[in-house]
Design a protein that fits this description.
- By secondary structure, this protein is mainly beta.
- The protein has one domain.
- 13% of the residues lie in helices and 41% in strands.
- The protein is built from two helices and nine strands.
- Strands 1, 2, 3, 4, 7 and 8 form a six-stranded antiparallel sheet that branches.
- Strand 3 and strand 4 form a beta hairpin.
- The longest helix is centred in the first third of the chain and has 8 residues.
- The termini are far apart.
């Protein structure tokens, strides 16, 4: 299935092919634990390397379709989901996701 990989170490957003199954997801993201912080209206989901914060600094920001900016550490992978929640090819366009990603040297925190 087609996915969109966000790699902050390479500072690259690219289209990749991913086999079905959790093991294939781990292999594509080079990790052993994922979380899904964002689900899109088109039924795509952003999977995040849940261990990314324990590795070398690889920060990035993502502006979701509602305009909210999220800050992440580690790789991300966008895949679609079917009606039962199983993964399938991403519906999002690669160029749109590229425009929503910003690679940063550190995380910014809003202060009051």
């Amino acid at each position: 299935m087609k996915g969109i990989l966000i790699d902050p170490w390479e500072k690259r957003v690219s289209s990749i092919e991913v086999d079905k199954g959790l093991g294939a997801l781990y292999d594509a993201m080079d990790c052993s634990c994922v979380t899904t912080p964002i689900s899109f209206e088109n039924r795509d989901s952003l999977f995040m390397d849940d261990e990314g914060r324990f590795r070398d600094n690889a920060f990035w920001e993502f502006e979701d379709p509602r305009g909210q900016v999220w800050q992440f550490v580690g790789k991300g992978l966008i895949l679609g989901t079917d009606e039962e929640g199983d993964s399938e090819s991403a519906r999002s366009e690669l160029e749109d996701i590229k425009e929503r990603c910003t690679f940063t040297p550190f995380l910014l925190r809003a202060t009051n």
